[in-house]
From TrEMBL:
This is Methylase. Pfam families: MTS. InterPro entries: DNA_methylase_N6_adenine_CS (IPR002052), N5-glutamine_MTase (IPR050320), SAM-dependent_MTases_sf (IPR029063), Small_mtfrase_dom (IPR007848). The keyword Kinase does not apply. PANTHER family: HEMK METHYLTRANSFERASE (PTHR18895), MTRF1L RELEASE FACTOR GLUTAMINE METHYLTRANSFERASE (PTHR18895:SF74). Residues 188-310 form the Methyltransferase small domain. One of its GO terms (molecular function) is protein-glutamine N-methyltransferase activity. One of its GO terms (biological process) is methylation. Keywords: Methyltransferase, Transferase. It comes from the Bacteria.
Length: 378
């Protein structure tokens, strides 16, 4: 636990500092209200000074939007038109860092004591758990917590399930349904596999799909405790809790399965927060470990399903030859590859700096088996 300190009305104050992105405690804090301008807030943020908001909640949101517009205008024409992945990430990181300097204080009960503020206690308790004292967080993070709680409460409708999945805060939401459709429609061996592993389960959506398709026992693993609890909750909600077992594990559980499904983060790169862990896979580590460990975790005649986009290839982050080499080195062979194109809004947004890569993106389900020589060696 880190502590943030400031002076307000000639008195020293302190609170717990919380940042999901791991941002350091601001070295200096200025208390501000509705008289604070966006230009002034930007100057403070540029110097590493946090603005602790005591004014109207809706005015704080407007101030955050105004800061965002100024950050956009400050970018050079080249930066605004940057199409490289490195430039895109650098711009987003800088933007997030500056905007995170507008902060608010939550009470010990996770309440937000600002004029016209909504009741955020339930959302904050779901994300952070109960508190023992006041805590200071970035307003941008708090807005994310509120939005995530709305998704968790309302759910995300998944056509392949004919039902909704309820993503918890900090768990990657299945808003891109095309990869789910691939798992829902890929041909299953006959008779239907008795056991399956779903590695990196997240919300548990793929584990539920497999259970609904008739798999008797699905072990869903994730290294994130929030995801394990979320997957367990969704399996229970959708009536397959008796067949889906969600466990905390670093990829593979013990034993073997007839079918192993893995949907690793699609982009090689270092996540800057736990929230990005579902997007970035450092050094393609999860992908490599899934492939290298597949043969020893498959029952004879079993299949591994790798669900992955080729966006990394279009961004120059990984070559197709590298993926094929990893498959070959693991003693695996490709039985089939099912493909689909993205349907999300950014794929058709010409203003997106990565538009060309997103427009060309293809998501695939690679059906893998143990190569014949490797199978006989077992």
């Amino acid at each position: 636990m880190e502590t943030i300190r400031w002076v307000e009305r000639d008195r020293d104050h302190e609170a717990e500092w919380h940042s999901e992105s791991g941002a350091p405690v601001p070295g200096r804090v200025v208390v501000a209200d509705d008289t604070m301008t966006a230009d002034a807030a930007m100057r403070l943020a540029s110097r590493g000074t946090a603005t602790l908001w005591r004014g109207d909640y809706h005015n704080a949101r407007q101030l955050l939007k105004a800061m965002d517009r100024r950050i956009e205008r400050r970018a050079s024409p080249r930066q605004r038109g940057e199409v490289t992945f490195a430039g895109h990430r650098a711009e987003r990181t800088q933007r997030a860092t500056l905007m995170a300097h507008l902060v608010v204080e939550l009470g010990p009960d996770r309440s937000l004591d600002l004029r016209r503020a909504p009741d955020v206690r339930e959302a904050c308790l779901a994300a952070y758990g109960p508190g023992s004292g006041p805590v200071v967080v970035a307003l941008s993070e708090l807005l994310g917590v509120i939005g995530a709680h709305q998704w968790q409460t309302k759910g995300v409708y998944v056509p392949a399930l004919g039902a909704s999945i309820h993503p918890a805060y900090g768990v990657f939401s299945p808003v891109r349904g095309e990869y789910i459709d691939l798992v829902a429609n890929a041909p299953l061996a006959q008779p239907v596999p008795r056991t399956a592993f779903d590695l990196g389960t997240g919300t548990g959506v793929l584990a539920v799909v497999l259970a609904q398709r008739g798999v008797e026992r699905v072990v869903a693993t994730d290294i994130n405790p929030r995801a394990v609890a979320c997957a367990r909750d969704n399996a229970q909600r959708l009536g397959v809790g008796d067949r889906v077992e969600a466990v905390e594990a670093d990829l593979y559980p013990d034993g073997r399965a007839d079918l192993v499904v893995c949907n690793p983060p699609w982009l090689p790169g270092e996540p800057t927060s736990d929230l990005e862990a579902g997007i970035y896979d450092p050094g393609s580590d999860m992908l490599r470990r899934f492939l290298s460990g597949l043969a020893e975790h498959l029952e004879p005649g079993g299949e591994g399903w790798l669900v992955i986009s080729d966006l990394a290839e279009h961004l120059g982050l990984r070559a197709r030859e590298e993926l094929l080499g990893l498959i070959d080195d693991a003693g695996l062979e490709v039985v089939d590859r099912l493909e689909t194109v993205p349907r999300h809004q950014r794929a058709s947004d010409a203003k997106d700096s990565l538009h060309a890569a997103r427009r060309a993106e293809v998501t695939s389900l690679w059906r893998l088996t143990v190569a014949q020589g490797r199978q006989s060696a077992r």
